[in-house]
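Before surveying the methods themselves, let us examine one representative protein, written as a sequence plus integers encoding its fold.
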Amino acid sequence: MGEMLQFPQEEPDFSVALSTSLVVFGFDGVDLKILLARSTRPPFEGALFLPSRYLKANEELLLSAKKMFSDLFGYDNPSTVEQLRAFGQVFRHPGGRVVNIAHYALVHTDDFQTEKWESHGMHWVSINEVPDLAFDHNDIVEYARERLKRRVRRRPVGFDLLPKEFTLGQLQNLYEKAMRKTFDKRNFRKKLFKSKLLIDLEKKSDGSGYGQHKGSLLFSFDVEAYSIMKLKGYDFVF
């Protein structure tokens, strides 16, 4: 019988690099989108990919992802930045071994900075129209979509994507895009009002908000009820 394995078995390979990519979900009032960047360096120069950065030896993973978010949006405390998982296929990066610890984030439409980003080769793309991306970033996007779908079912994180004042049509549209299914309008609204999350603002949209029909009732969400439900969770079943 051979000797039992000893741990650690050998010296670590310090030549393995770490990176993080950020799947940023945004809702423009009509469509669920993600933010993509255009690579300016080999080996995928000109190709689209997720906002990404390499980690330095002294950087903590989540703080690195939040720093990237801050650089993009200009503030430091997003409501949702969450680690997804490691993407570590041996040959995922043609330049060497790079393990990607991906994260995802949610932003309000008010945070969109389209003109600023476009000057740096960045833009929003519909979640259903994501092209072929560099590296394995399509796999990361798909994994993030499934995570968002689960989170939307169990916690009211969808409200993190809406403007402060929204219509029920916008809310249903968002949840349909996030969960990849359609809902019966009456049943959807019945369950929403039962959740006690909505506040009727007693006013109507003037139609200027993208995705808002003129005359539609406007709502906001109850911050206190939202905070409790985000911690405890709920089952948003339709």
About this structure: The radius of gyration is 21 Å. The beta strands are 17-27, 32-38, 48-49, 52-54, 80-87, 98-107, 122-126, 198-204, 217-221.
